[in-house]
Design goal:
By secondary structure, the chain is of the alpha+beta class. Helices cover about 20% and strands about 40% of the residues. The chain is built from 2 helices and 7 strands, in the order βαββββββα. It has a 5-stranded antiparallel β-sheet. Strands 2-7 form a two-stranded antiparallel ribbon. Strand 5 and strand 6 form a beta hairpin. About 20% of the residues are buried.
């Protein structure tokens, strides 16, 4: 399952060189993840959350304010309490970034919590 999310890079996202700051690109991946979870009716923060435990990203071209960024995200691995997300981003017909991030579902105390079967079904389709 691949989910496409789009957003325009904002001026506030840029650094002193006028390029979207590297950390802000990661926020775009997170926004895409949250958008997909919402569409699948998987709660983002109810009785816990989804902290990141691992992240890698390769930046291939700069993004500037006003550019439309297309984020493609999909779960590449589903664990008992974790999801590995694969993402790639394009803008103006060029790949600008790609990577992976691993999130773990935790309960309100911060301990890993099993993914619900309905969530696994929704993410696996």
């Amino acid at each position: 399952m691949e989910h496409i999310y789009q957003r325009h890079a904002q001026f506030a996202d840029t650094d002193a060189a006028g390029v979207v700051h590297f950390a802000k690109i990661l926020c775009y991946a997170e926004e895409a993840e949250h958008d997909l979870l919402a569409k699948l009716n998987i709660p983002l923060l109810a009785d816990g959350g989804w902290p990141r435990v691992k992240l890698s990203c390769e930046y291939t071209k700069p993004v500037q304010a006003g550019d439309l960024v297309h984020v493609a995200i999909s779960p590449s691995q589903l664990g008992t309490s974790s999801i590995v997300w694969r993402f790639s981003m394009t803008s103006n017909g060029n790949e600008v970034a790609n990577g992976e991030m691993k999130t773990v579902r935790v309960d309100a105390t911060g301990k890993p919590s099993p993914l619900e079967e309905s969530w696994l079904d929704a993410l696996g389709s």
